[in-house]
Amino acid sequence: MPIPAFIREQPEALDRCLAAARAFPASWWPDAFDGIALVGSGSSFNALVASRPRFVASRRGVVIVHGPEDFVAELGDIRSRPLVIVLSQSGASATSIAAAKAAADAGLPTLAITASPKAPLGRTGATVLAMPVGNEPVGPKTKGFIGSLVMLAALAETLGAPPVPLPQGTDLAPLIEPCRDWAETLARNFADVDQIVFAGRRGNHGIGLEASLKISEMAGVPTAAYPTEELLHGRLHGLTERSVTFILADSEAELAEARLVEAVMASRGCKVLAIDAANLPGMGAGSRWAPPCLIVPFQDGRAAMTQPAIGIDIGGTTIKLGLVTSEGTILGRSNIAYASMSSFEEIADTLADAIVSAQAVTRLQAGSIGLAAPGHARPMDGLMVDGTANVPLLRNRSLALALKQRTNLPVATINDGSAATLGELHFGAGRGLRRFCVITLGTGVGGGIAIDGRLITGEDGVPPELGAIVLHDAARGNRTLEDFASAGAFTKAYAMAGGAPHTTPLEICRLMSAGNPVAREVVDLICRRIAQASGALINALNLEACILSGGVALAGDLLTSRVTAHLGDFTWPFLLSRSRILTGVTGDCSGIIGAAEWARRRCADAA
Known about the structure:
Distance between the termini: 29 Å
Largest sheet: 5 strands, parallel
Number of strands: 21
Structural class: alpha/beta
Mean pLDDT: 86
CATH architecture of the largest domain: 3-Layer(aba) Sandwich
CATH topology of the largest domain: Rossmann fold
Low-confidence stretches: 281-289
Strand content: 15-25%
Strand order of the largest sheet: 2-1-3-4-5
Number of helices: 23
Radius of gyration: 26 Å
């Protein structure tokens, strides 16, 4: 679902979250405490910064916002007994889980707020408050941020903060379309922006942090966010005529200050916009508590700033193509079988026609093309120099150059496993993880590694070859992860064990779930090999998760549960307790989505 659709659902989500927060004290009240520790990362950290003034107003002692790792590191030096509130929409952030467990183990009153009460965060010993935002599986968490703000505000009121008129869904709903129009106008006016800076005092600093995070994530534009006071201590130096600064103001004094900065910087050719939080687009003066409403224009803005891109994923038998929006939604998808194609030119012509068709069907103009291909392409020109065994027509040819000539669009090439990893990093199961790998199971086996939000590759972008991990000291053809776990390996193993020949991996998994003993034995043996490779990667890189992706991984829990069952035989016990086997959220679309995201970022950098 595109981001605008999630934004339109926010009024109902807001009402659900507010009702849940107001009902919660009937079943919970913290033990005696002195001070409040607010703990979270990413969007959760930003929501906590935005909400901190309301907790300060409760007069329950010092209120500090911590990142989870800092909280754990400093916990032993805390001499007070704070109420610890850990916020994580996914409930799966490893550092937030560790912080909640450490607080609960230390005997501190601990509250975990999450949209997924059954996630690991709910099993830390903390009291759990469910955030009923509804489904929001990929992309930036728009409903989760709004839900966090109103739930935190209601909790602060429960703890003693003076009541303020919190927004209702009926207050937010009329803002949705005017805010979108406002954001799209800004995006058009600042199409060539080179940097966006946000500033605000107190809670508005948290809104600025969230706006900068989402625009940076989705549009690839460099951003920063500061308290207004810090902005005025030299942070405006270095801005250019292409930079834009937003100052979020709550009071007449703040607005006057922002307008003075706006005028001074305009005289130097720099754009500064003073945003009056009490007069949002489409809402008159005297709006209710501003933060939940103030973020909406910027939630729309980061999507409006980013052109869609074409993503192309070249598999062993089929080429998948689609136009991908900035929030990771695939439109105008097509699957192209190319086994019968006789020349490189036929492949290039067919793909160029499919690109034109995708743009016509969606009525959207792509800004770039991302090409996910097996092996490695030379960065300077996209010439395929390695890994074309399954696609011999591409050997020593540049499909990137051919498509650029036919479409007049910039093209960026990436390894297919790296593309799948990028797709999961930004739009799938890798969101919120600092260290993970993706293992793609398809015609071949590949994958990628992401550490601290970045793909790990060698010189000139040479990808890791996860399918080449040697698992058995045997003759060629029966030794690597690809030998044991590719789609063909499933089919071959099932036939050799007495099953019907030519049975697909997904059908074998279906037979296993139906009780077929041959299918169960084959799937279990292959999953043990996947666990062996996963354990080696976890041991070497201290990974939080191994994500299974690709067509074979569509078997879902049937596969991951068996890999998890064997993982302990190959993983150091301490690391085992900190790692998981997950199914990719983006499924067999990860290559398309990741290729498009690669193109958006690389082509923007080149521009």
